[in-house]
Amino acid sequence: MNVYLPSQPGEIRKFIEGKIRSIMTPDSKLLVMGDWNSKPDKLDKWFRRVRLGVNIVPGSGALDTYHARQNWSAIDHMAASAEALPMMRKVVVNRNWDLSDHWPLECLIRTSGFQATVAEEGMAPFRLDAKKLKSQGEAIRDSNYWRVLGEELAEVDDVNVVADSFETMVQQVTTDLNLLRPSETAHPKHYRLNRAAKVAINRRRLAYGRWLREEAPVKGAIYEAYYERKVQATKVKNACSQASWLRFIVKGSLTLTEGDMKGFWNWPKQILGKRRNGPSDFGPLYDSVVQNLVYDPLGKTELVRSHYATLLGDPTGHSRDAAYWLQKLPGPSSPPIEELNEDIRWVEINDALGRLRPGAPGRDGLPPEFFKLARDSGEIGGVPSSEFGKTLTMILSKVWDSGIIPDKWNEAWIVSIFKDE
After folding, report:
1. Coil, strand or helix: which one is 59?
2. C or N terminus of the chain, fewer CB within 10 Å?
3. Are 179 and 234 part of one and the same domain?
4. Euclidean distance between CA atoms 319 and 330, whole angstroms
5. pTM, 2 dp
């Protein structure tokens, strides 16, 4: 919860007091932070007098945050409830920040219970760069790693071991050929600074550091030199931002004029705080059991899991009971098809690979285009022409002969599309 109290708080202080009381429960993990316009001892006395159930988070070092005047003062604070206070480390003042007359407070929050997140329970460990995948197709097909994998799995009958070994080898091949693409969340900024802006900002920071070391809090000649650097850096940064924004507008316009509708719809997501791929914050979810809204990410994740566990569960045990369904859905018996029991042939695998359509990657991060690289074109022989095709044929034959689908192949991502209701 963020707050601001003016120097004459009056009714605003009563409003904040009522707001804290309305959301406070015995097990609340509440953090209230902001500009209180009060020194620590005065604010602490007010907390004890009105019994709000929050206490100031202790700090380390000098806690003066306000520096517009020559006399610095500590008027920005973090206050936490009894349940939240053990999670808070000591607050510190970040004096490298010079864009306001208040230095920000920083505090590390220690949390528990995040070990079982979705990212650690099956998210793809990597994603392939589609452009590099096309250009390195031949290198992937003829990689010597596939021959090595084929020799290792020749005597292996456990299909789960086969599937794990194949996935490990895919990561080795793609890493060696530099086919992995960087995470889309690695660069959250909407524009890039040019060299002139970076130089100006660095000069501003050096001037600011010199003022802190040699003159602060007095604002003399060194401060005036720093202030000039600050004005210049702001001008250069704003010019850079405007130029970047213009390029962004032109880029979006070109996607529309060229008929690239996918690119056009991805274009505004860059400034709406949403990634091209991946989840976004879809707001609170309703828990029908406790009849309440769930806001925290872990609670919403658990609620979605519980929903799908119920939806995909098999409480009656009839899901895989063939005799039950034969009784429920009687019909004429079909004559056996002898060809179904024959070994898989390369021509059949090659035909299936040719019918693959572009799509999203699965749990292993591999798109259909990756497997399609094993396909032979032209006249098809009895065996694949590439090492990749030979290894893929051997793996599919082992799975077919065993009659068991590897556990990993039965795993999938479920993407929920929530209704606005």
Report:
1. strand
2. C
3. no
4. 16
5. 0.47
Written as six digits, the tokens of 282 are 């879809």
Report yes or no on 251 lying in a domain. Answer: yes
| Count of domains observed in the chain | 3
Task: Round to whole Å and give the CA distance between 73 and 45.
Answer: 18
Rounded CA separation 421/419 (Å): 5
Q: Which of 192, 188, 193 is nearest to 233 (CA)?
A: 193
Q: How far apart are CA 380 and CA 405, in angstroms?
A: 27
Tell me: do 211 and 266 sit in the same domain: yes
| pLDDT average, residue stretch 352-374 | 87
Give the DSSP per-residue string, 125-189: S--B-HHHHHHTHHHHHT-HHHHHHHHHHTT---HHHHHHHHHHHHHHHHHHTT-BPPPTTS---
Handedness of CA 160, 163, 167, 170 (dihedral sign): positive
Place of tokens 């001037």: 207
**Tell me: the pLDDT tens digits for 249-270?**
888 888 877 777 777 777 776 6
- Is there a domain that residue 122 lies in? no
